[in-house]
Write a structure and sequence with these properties.
Blueprint lengths: L2 H6 L3 H9 L7 H6 L1 H5 L3 H4 L3 H25 L2 H18 L3 H22 L6 H6 L2 H46 L3 H4 L2 H58 L8 H31 L7 H23 E8 L9 E3 L4 E7 L11 E6 L10 E5 L3 E3 L10 E13 L11 H5 L5 E9 L2 E8 L4 E3 L5 H14 L15 E2 H16 L5 H12 L9 E2 L1 H5 L10 H21 L9 H8 L6 E6 L7 E8 L5 E5 L5 H4 L4 H7 L1 E4 L10 E2 L3 E2 H5 L29 E4 L17 H10 L2 H5 L4
Organism: Sylvia borin (Garden warbler)
Main location: cytoplasm
Pfam families: SH2, STAT_alpha, STAT_bind, STAT_int, STAT_linker
Length: about 750
């Protein structure tokens, strides 16, 4: 079943989540019509490879054209209209930046996988629940409502200023008219009445000036309160959601809404600033004793400038954290001399700023004591922000060709690179720019989340563990000394993040039973782990009891095994994986003989084994487990084929496959049939390789179990069989059975 088919079967509350991240950037109708094709492409790789992204974009347009031809024949007018619109969108928005559509589709597929994983969980995890807090959603709506109200108030004040200007012009005209009269004329009764009218008009001007200044003050106060409270919280929440998304959590939306709020507030502040300038202009033409403008205007202008400075500073953010194109699911881990990408965005989107802001990238700016390793950035480290490269027209800049290079110390060598020293050192990529607008000059700075620098890809697993631990444990964006004394983490939250590693990296998260097994492995036989605090050392530095590796190294090896060798089986949910030997026997003991399950080895890194239940002649139940298959052996023969062709020789009996039903009762071929590399009638025949004088060889996984043995035995290595063994098999197996095992 395709991923999209699974999505369509979700409950309505999960479908609503899916609906949130499909918009005009990537319409849902294209996801629906091209589901199989879209899922068959490597969008993650294309998101960091422009040439590959361009090819996929062109192929996507071809697929849309094919669908357009089909619906044209069916005369489906609505679908024809939508597909033409989508085709125009793809060509117009993404032709100059094909990697952007690859990023969008990759994120959508990843978010679908996360939602599917969440739907399979009986309860929502604590971290995800906190991110979807109803209080947060209500605050978002309140912010948008208040920003809109502020914008309206500023526009209404514009009308008041215009009325004040008209009133003053009338006063000025009438006053100058009287001043131009002869002295004798000024003593007339009519003129005295006019002077009384002017005094009344001046009183109205004074009242109106005070009223306008009061309204401007209220608008400024409302902006100040909104920025100090709800908008700041909203921005901090977005940054926290970004942290969680970087370690596999839900995608962080809401940035476009924040941009809209920041932009409207900036426009309102500049509008208020123009109103104050207009008042200053009116002041030069008319002032009087008790005039409120010279008293209040300087204070109000100073407050407006202060708010603009703060608004611009907060609006300069890292939209996409540093990430190597070679490891798109391991952001913030950077390898020396390998390019990485990072994207900056200014949430204040004003046309006047397009191509006017040049951003400079540096590394470890103002940092001198955290690490004894020093780096510089090679490549293009100064670029201009613009609205043309982003599909949504945001004011942003993406650095795509930066490379970190480690500097030698004064002694001529590089810094300490112990196994944990390097991966626990945190560094910072900083960005600075200057905004010059309407007479204001504002210096802006921001930084990435802490990154880990590695010099060898073997350091990547532990480096990624550091990134997980940091972003799980703190929302401080710049605590570079974090690992001097790393805090403990709540086990329930850590387990949720571990499930995200599986949903984001290998397409299927962990269920509660699998997480319980991991919890027991981390903390032993505890009754409850909701409030259990786990130390950093126990997670990543201390070896598991009786083992030569840590918990994290063991788990990372399993992720690598799934990704490279058993991914389809894992996604289908046929690999139980995380189950102890004791638990597997409890599960199998009452099952039909030949029932088996698949689990990851606890003693071998990156190993998978299967255990089946059998029944002896006296009725006793026995269990057999094979030696774990590692990636070296799985590279020689697909795991599904191993399950299909596996044979057991009991003493001198005929070899037979003991694997009948996948736990609990799924026929083996029904579960794995579609994953077999070939069907029996399509397999290569032994004679195909024997035509040149060689004895034909086949790969068949075989175990031999002795009658008097109570211990499970291991399968023979998957090496070519000798002629004598092959001859024995031909005596006991049909040609079809042998053909199914041909390599």
């Amino acid at each position: 079943m395709s991923q999209w088919s699974q999505v369509q079967q979700l409950e309505i509350k999960f479908l609503e989540q899916v609906d949130q991240f499909y918009d005009d950037n990537f319409p849902m109708e294209i996801r629906h019509l091209l589901a199989q094709w879209i899922e068959g492409q490597d969008w993650e790789a294309a998101a960091n490879n422009e040439a590959m992204a361009m090819i996929l974009l062109q192929n996507l347009i071809i697929q849309v054209d094919d669908q357009l031809d089909r619906v044209s024949q069916e005369k489906n007018l609505l679908l024809i209209h939508n597909l033409k619109r989508v085709r125009k969108l793809l060509q117009g928005k993404y032709h100059g930046n094909p990697m952007h559509i690859a990023v969008i589709i990759s994120n959508c597929l990843r978010e679908e996988r996360r939602i599917l994983a969440a739907a399979s969980m009986p309860v929502q995890g604590p971290l995800e629940k906190s991110l979807q807090n109803s209080v947060v959603s209500e605050r978002q709506r309140n912010v948008e409502h208040k920003v809109s109200a502020i914008k309206n108030s500023a526009q209404m004040t514009d009308q008041d200023v215009k009325y004040l200007e008209d009133l003053q012009e009338e006063f000025d005209f009438r006053y100058k008219t009287i001043q131009s009269l002869e002295q004798n004329d000024k003593n007339s009764t009519l003129i005295k009445q006019e002077m009384l009218a002017l005094q009344s008009m001046l009183n109205s001007l004074d009242y109106k000036r005070k009223e306008v200044l009061s309204k401007i003050g209220r608008v400024i106060h409302e902006i100040d309160m909104l920025m100090s409270n709800m908008l700041t919280e909203e921005l901090l929440d977005w940054k926290r959601r970004q942290q969680i998304a970087c370690i596999g959590g839900p995608l962080h939306g809401g940035l476009d809404q924040l941009q809209n709020c920041f932009t409207l507030l900036a426009e309102s502040l500049f509008q208020v600033r123009r109103q104050l300038e207009k008042l200053d202009e009116l002041l030069t033409r008319l002032t009087y004793d008790g005039d409120p403008i010279p008293v209040q205007r300087p204070q109000l202008l100073e407050k407006v400038n202060f708010l603009l400075y703060n608004l611009f500073r907060n609006s300069f953010i890292v939209e996409r954290q540093p990430c190597m194109p070679t490891h798109p699911q391991r952001p913030m881990v950077l390898k020396t001399l390998i390019q990485f990408t990072v994207k900056l965005r200014l949430l204040i989107k004003l046309p006047e700023l397009n191509y006017q802001i040049r951003v400079k990238a540096t590394i470890d700016k103002n940092v001198s004591t955290v690490s004894n390793r020093r780096f510089v950035l090679c490549g293009t480290h100064v670029k201009a922000m613009n609205m043309d490269e982003s599909a949504n027209g945001s004011l942003s800049v993406e650095f795509r060709h930066l490379q970190p290079k480690e500097m030698k110390t004064s002694s001529g060598s590089k810094g300490n690179e112990g196994p944990h020293m390097v991966t626990e050192e945190l560094h910072s990529i900083s960005f600075e720019t200057q905004v010059c607008l309407y007479g204001l000059t504002i210096n802006l700075e921001t930084s990435s989340l802490p990154v880990v620098m590695i010099s060898n890809v073997s350091q990547l697993p532990n480096a990624w563990a550091s990134i997980i631990w940091y972003n799980l444990s703190t929302n401080d964006p710049q605590n570079l000394s974090f690992f001097n004394n790393p805090p403990a983490a709540t086990l329930s939250q850590l387990l949720e993040v571990l499930s995200w590693q599986f949903s984001s990296y290998v397409g299927r998260g962990l269920n509660s039973e699998q997480l319980n097994m991991l919890a027991e492995k981390l903390m032993g036989q505890q009754v409850s782990y909701n409030d259990y605090q786990l130390s950093w050392a126990k997670f990543c530095k201390e070896h598991l009891p009786g083992k030569s590796f840590t918990f994290w190294v063991w788990l990372e090896a399993i992720l690598d095994l799934i990704k490279k060798h058993i991914l389809p089986l894992w996604i289908d949910g046929y690999v139980m994986g995380f189950v102890s030997k004791e638990k597997e026997r409890i599960l199998l003991k009452d099952k039909t003989p030949g029932t088996f399950l698949l689990r990851f080895s606890e003693s071998n890194l990156g190993g998978i084994t299967f255990t089946w239940v059998d029944q002896l002649e006296n009725g006793d139940v026995t269990f057999h487990s094979v030696e774990p298959y590692n990636k070296g052996r799985l590279a020689a023969l697909p795991f599904a084929d191993i399950l299909r062709d596996y044979k057991v020789i009991m003493a001198d009996n005929v070899p037979e496959n003991p694997l009948k039903y996948l736990y609990p009762d799924i026929p083996k071929d029904k579960a794995f049939g579609k994953h077999y590399s070939s069907q029996p009638n399509e397999a290569s025949k032994p004679s195909d390789g024997g035509g040149k004088g060689y004895v034909p060889s086949v790969f068949i996984p075989v175990s031999k179990i002795l009658n008097d043995s109570t211990e499970p035995h291991s399968p023979s290595d998957l090496l070519p069989m000798s002629p004598s063994v092959y001859a024995v098999l031909r005596e006991h197996l049909s040609p079809t059975a042998i053909e199914t095992a041909v390599s």
